[in-house]
Amino acid sequence: MDDRQIVATRASKITLTCDGSSRTVELYSQEGLELTASLMLKLAAEYRLMYKPTWLGLPIIQLPTDIVMMQELIWKLRPDVIVECGLAHGGAAVLYASICELIGKGRVIGVDIEVREHNRAAIESHPMWKRIEIIEGSSIGPSTVAEIKARVGNAQTVLVVLDSNHSREHVSRELSAYHEMVTPGSYLVTMDGAQANLWDIPRGEREWKDDNPLIAIHDFLREHAEFQVDPHYTRMQVTSSPDGFLRRLTDEEVERR
Ligand SMILES: C[S@@+](CC[C@H](N)C(=O)[O-])C[C@H]1O[C@@H](n2cnc3c(N)ncnc32)[C@H](O)[C@@H]1O
Questions:
Q1: 3-state secondary structure of 22
Q2: Mutate to test the pocket of ligand 1, among 65, 112, 167 (most ligand atoms within 8 A of CB)
Q3: Cβ of residue 162 lying under 6 Å from some atom of ligand 1
């Protein structure tokens, strides 16, 4: 038998030991699934696995599970405009644009505080460039927000994705600046709430415990009953965006509450 083969039967348990205490759970229980998924996320962040994928040739800083969920969401919503705060290398903008291309409508407005020349060149020479617009500036800068609002115009279905600076303060300001652009029934996807659970990994930072997008999301939800977490898009368990898929209720749903 191959020595590297891992055998794990119905009777298997998994024990996590940390700082002198330990916890044991049945591997195939719900607890076992949650513990394993949460450890997978810590390992993915430690080994920077989210920096490894590309989409149609451009680096995309996402876990494969989250990439699949965004594909599902866009296919279902069929948005006219997708606003992405935090463009980086452009891989996610190309992902969103490529699904729009298959749908036959939709454009992506990508904003980043710094669009490096080689990234801009790669995005502009990509076949999906025809569905992408780039704005360079801080996503919370009043002129940038005004510019995006103007470009969104009165589009029928607007999806917003926040994936730029992941401090609590910045995400709070983005949520407040962008939530009104999200059309009823659409989503305000707020990424990287998992930072709240990554402060303990070797490359993590202790401050993340109290400074992360998840706290900003929960603060926002307390003030905005018209948005609700949709757990459907985090059902793959291994996600960088727990509680990050915020659906804006329709007017009828708000009335019925
Ligand atoms: C995690 S990366 C984005 C990854 C990208 N969305 C993807 O999925 O491939 C974060 C990006 O946010 C940008 N950023 C940081 N602060 C920003 C700000 N205030 N406004 C806009 N972009 C910002 C950074 O320059 C960086 O490119």
A1: strand
A2: 112
A3: no
Gap from CA of 29 to ligand 1 centroid (Å): 37
88 lines ligand 1 (CB under 6 A): yes
Torsion of the alpha carbons at 230, 182, 211 and 36, rounded to the nearest 10: 30
Question: What are 38-61's pLDDT values in tens digits?
Answer: 999 999 999 999 999 999 999 999
Q: What are the start-end ranges of the E strands in the chain?
A: 13-18, 21-26, 54-55, 58-59, 81-85, 107-112, 132-136, 158-162, 187-190, 227-229, 245-248
- Hey, what amino acid is at 52? K
Q: Is the pTM of this model over 0.90?
A: yes
Sign, CA torsion 194/197/202/208 = positive
Which one, of 52, 51, 99, lies nearest residue 76 by Cα? 99
